[in-house]
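From the methods appendix. Each design record in this collection lists the tokenized structure first, followed by the designed amino acid sequence. Records were kept in a plain field format so they could be parsed without special tools. The example shown here is representative of the layout used throughout.

RECORD:
FOLD TOKENS (147 positions):
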């Protein structure tokens, strides 16, 4: 493993770590909250797909000779607790807003990384992340309008 990361390995590490934190956050929200059926279903299906996509990113990191960095589970738990508190004090629309904001920030990190020159396989994985993120944001927006 190299001591210093180049632009590509640094981008992959950031995408993987931040995506892992979002996944942990979603799983913590599911574990600690009583959610409406539509949002629970969305979060469960998103978590399953996100886990698979993050494994693909981890594989890319390893192929570049880097070891994946673990997500900051403490930060993810704190965000999930804040999500829960906001939901208890208001309604699920605040949870949806918070998740949309976090997802949008992560999506931007991926889009910035896509500006680099990647192999076809890496490009495909990163593009799949963007498409998954877009779908999640769109589905959150639909749920927001129904509340």
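DESIGN:
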């Amino acid at each position: 493993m190299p001591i210093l990361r180049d632009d590509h390995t640094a981008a992959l590490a950031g995408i993987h770590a931040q995506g892992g934190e979002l996944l942990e956050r979603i799983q913590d929200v599911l574990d600690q909250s009583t959610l409406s059926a539509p949002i629970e279903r969305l979060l469960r299906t998103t978590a399953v797909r996100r886990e698979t996509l993050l494994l693909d990113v981890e594989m890319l990191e390893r192929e570049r000779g880097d070891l994946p960095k673990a997500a900051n589970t403490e930060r993810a738990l704190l965000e999930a607790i804040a999500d829960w508190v906001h939901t208890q004090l208001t309604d699920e629309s605040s949870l949806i807003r918070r998740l949309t904001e976090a997802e949008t920030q992560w999506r931007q990190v991926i889009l910035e990384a896509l500006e680099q020159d990647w192999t076809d396989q890496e490009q495909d994985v990163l593009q799949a992340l963007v498409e998954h993120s877009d779908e999640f944001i769109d589905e959150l927006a639909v749920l927001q309008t129904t509340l």
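APPENDIX NOTE: The longest helix spans residues 37-63.
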